[in-house]
């Protein structure tokens, strides 16, 4: 699944969604189902305590090369250098900020994060392994 078939030099046109981090199964990397106390992976059955859930980056982009438009999703730790922290730590920072502000600034923190990601990626050219 991690084998690169080719390289594509393209520019980022837009960010497709505002959810850059997801709770990920440590075994199969699928999205976990979280409730207040536990998590469960529907794909492989892995489960545990919600506080022990790990997080992973998922950045969905619309990109363009000289001829075509593509929808592409970039996963995992290759995004750590762009965000400056692991997905685990970014999730923790956002969660701590929201708790310190009493939940009043949740939408504001998400909007600020989206703006920062847009500034980092939109209009920039990258080489994507596809």
Automatic annotation (TrEMBL):
Q: Which ranges of the sequence are coiled-coil? A: none
This protein's GO CC annotations: cytoplasm; nucleus
Name of the coding gene: Ddias
Gene Ontology molecular-function annotations: DNA binding; zinc ion binding
Question: Gene3D superfamilies, per this entry?
Answer: Nucleic acid-binding proteins (2.40.50.140)
Quote the InterPro entries the UniProt record gives. Answer: DDIAS, Euk_RPA1_DBD_C, NA-bd_OB-fold, Rep_factor-A_C
SUPFAM superfamilies given for it? Answer: Nucleic acid-binding proteins (SSF50249)
Q: Which domain of life is it from?
A: Eukaryota
* UniProt entry tagged with the keyword Repeat: no
Establish whether keyword Endoplasmic reticulum is in the entry: no
Segments forming domain Replication factor A C-terminal = 9-95
Q: Which PANTHER family match?
A: DNA DAMAGE-INDUCED APOPTOSIS SUPPRESSOR PROTEIN (PTHR35537:SF1), DNA DAMAGE-INDUCIBLE APOPTOSIS SUPPRESSOR PROTEIN DDIAS (PTHR35537)
Which controlled-vocabulary keywords does the entry list? DNA-binding, Metal-binding, Zinc, Zinc-finger
- Name the protein family: Belongs to the replication factor A protein 1 family.
State the organism named in the record. Certhia brachydactyla (short-toed tree-creeper)
- Which protein are we looking at? DDIAS protein
Question: One GO biological process from the UniProt record?
Answer: negative regulation of intrinsic apoptotic signaling pathway in response to DNA damage
Pfam families membership: Rep_fac-A_C (PF08646)
């Amino acid at each position: 699944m991690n084998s690169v078939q080719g390289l594509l030099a393209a520019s980022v046109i837009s960010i497709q969604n505002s959810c850059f981090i997801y709770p990920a199964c440590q075994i199969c990397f699928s999205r976990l189902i979280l409730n207040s106390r536990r998590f469960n992976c529907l794909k492989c059955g892995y489960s545990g305590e919600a506080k022990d859930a790990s997080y992973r980056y998922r950045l969905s982009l619309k990109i363009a090369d000289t001829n075509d438009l593509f929808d592409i999703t970039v996963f995992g730790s290759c995004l750590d250098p762009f965000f400056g922290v692991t997905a685990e730590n970014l999730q923790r920072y956002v969660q701590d900020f929201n708790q310190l502000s009493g939940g009043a600034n949740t939408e504001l923190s998400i909007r600020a994060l989206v703006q920062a990601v847009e500034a980092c990626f939109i209009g920039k050219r990258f080489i994507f392994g596809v």
